[in-house]
Amino acid sequence: MNTSNDAALTMLREVAADGTASAPSAAAAASGNTARPATDTVLHLNGISKSFGENHVLRDVSLTVHKGETVCLLGPSGCGKSTLLRCVNWLEIPDAGTVHVSNRRMGVREGSSIKMSDAELARSRARIGMVFQHFALWPHLTVLQNVMEAPLHVLGRPRDEARADAERLLERVGLAGKMEAFPSRLSGGQKQRVGIARALAMKPDILLFDEPTSALDPMLVGEVLNVMHSLAQEGATMVIVTHEMEFARQVASRIVFMDAGQVIESAPPEQFFGAPQTPRARQFLARFRSPHQPFDDTAGDAPKLL
Q1: Given CB 3.0 to 4.6 Å as the disulfide criterion, which of 134, 227, 255, 306 pairs with 272?
Q2: What is its main location (predicted)?
């Protein structure tokens, strides 16, 4: 079973069932403040814990992301990075802690302990763009239709407007010539760029990327990283789970290093890669030491975004 595909389709179907959506930098350290986040804060996590049976995947994780930041989550496999992203959009419900997106609480009605209805949760999720490892495209829809689907059925946008926006976004990610193609005719890198365009079509407040290049052939990684690099330069607010160290070094506003379900270190990339402060971070980076090679933003066939 492809859980990434199932999760993506479930999110869009839940939002579509409701038929509406609410209208929607300096690096910040991880925060334990339980107060409502500041107005320039896009994402605020406080004390997030999550277990699966006896497996404690997240342990009291707090994190704040401000508008325009690109935060890269690094850490060994299985340390809780992907689970943390899934807790942000409530694909996984935290056992403890709070999530605020654009100053609105996820999962629970503001000022109460009453759980959100499915419709309320769907409206909250509409503010979050999620790009999965395994693309999660509808195989029976063309590339253009995949990008138009959520704006049409979630935001209720007129078809002509949704189409024009989808065409513009596909041109931005270098796929103007693939609009009428079906996903089965695309390379992995092209599919992931469709996924990015689809997320952008919802005009989200924040973009979450869950290892967006892990399922790609190494020759196709550059074209996806190039699009993400351009988004960072444009000031998009992003949280990226990645194992691409050089990419993280060059695009991140801040590196958040996780291990064993905890945030171990949070620092600007030049500090984290040049002088990590904790033994676990130093041990992790030692596995990736190699001669410095700048990120090649001309790799692949995706153009820089305008």
Answers
A1: 255
A2: membrane
